[in-house]
């Protein structure tokens, strides 16, 4: 890779990281409050990074979001549940990194299998978003099954239906948003990056 290409790529990383930081700290840019949880739209930025910069770029940008989520859990949590569960980096950091990895690799694989780039991007975005939802909520159930109920008066038997409800009310809408919005932004951006 030519030095100017490395510099260009670093600038794009910095740009995506700046957007992630803004989405985390400017109200309603990254989190839309819905009951005790927040509808997240930051994952769209991570997916766009993965679609334009590849799995490694998506992993870096997802990692930035994950570290911010982890730090915020200690100092300024986005919800009462975040203060309990996101202090664990397996819940706060790992799923964010895997958004970019999954979206990037799925897009690369689908690009070789189908001609419609927009559709390939949409499927990759959908799967990247779902991996985040499934890992975060799955690990909440795995690690905090006996703890978070006290906060929301959920008994142990109701924990799984509660998580399934969150998948339905938050996870699926987030995945649909990602599938439609990510390709709209990523396709022209990818064209520009490739032309460079």
Automatic annotation (TrEMBL):
Listed InterPro entries: ECF_trnsprt_substrate-spec (IPR024529)
Highest taxon of source: Bacteria
GO function term, MF aspect, one: transmembrane transporter activity
Entry keywords, A to Z: Membrane, Transmembrane, Transmembrane helix
Transmembrane segments: 12-34, 40-62, 69-87, 93-111, 118-142, 162-186
Protein name: Integral membrane protein
Organism lineage: Bacteria, Bacillati, Bacillota, Bacilli, Lactobacillales
């Amino acid at each position: 890779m030519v030095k100017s290409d490395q510099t260009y790529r670093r600038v794009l990383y910095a740009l995506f990281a700046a957007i992630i930081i803004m989405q985390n700290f400017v109200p309603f840019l990254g989190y839309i409050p819905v009951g005790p949880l927040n509808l997240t739209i930051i994952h769209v930025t991570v997916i766009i990074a993965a679609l334009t910069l590849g799995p490694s770029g998506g992993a870096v940008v997802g990692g930035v979001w994950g570290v911010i989520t982890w730090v915020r859990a200690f100092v300024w949590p986005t919800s009462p549940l975040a203060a309990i569960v996101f202090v664990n980096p397996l819940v706060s950091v790992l799923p964010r990194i895997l958004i970019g990895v999954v979206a990037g690799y799925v897009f690369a694989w689908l690009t070789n299998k189908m001609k419609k780039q927009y559709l390939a991007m949409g499927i990759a975005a959908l799967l990247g978003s779902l991996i985040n939802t499934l890992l975060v909520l799955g690990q909440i159930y795995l690690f905090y099954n006996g703890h978070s109920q006290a906060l929301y008066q959920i008994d142990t038997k109701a924990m799984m239906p509660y998580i399934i409800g969150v998948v339905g009310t938050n996870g699926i809408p987030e995945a649909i948003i990602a599938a439609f919005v990510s390709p709209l932004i990523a396709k022209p951006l990818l064209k520009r990056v490739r032309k460079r």
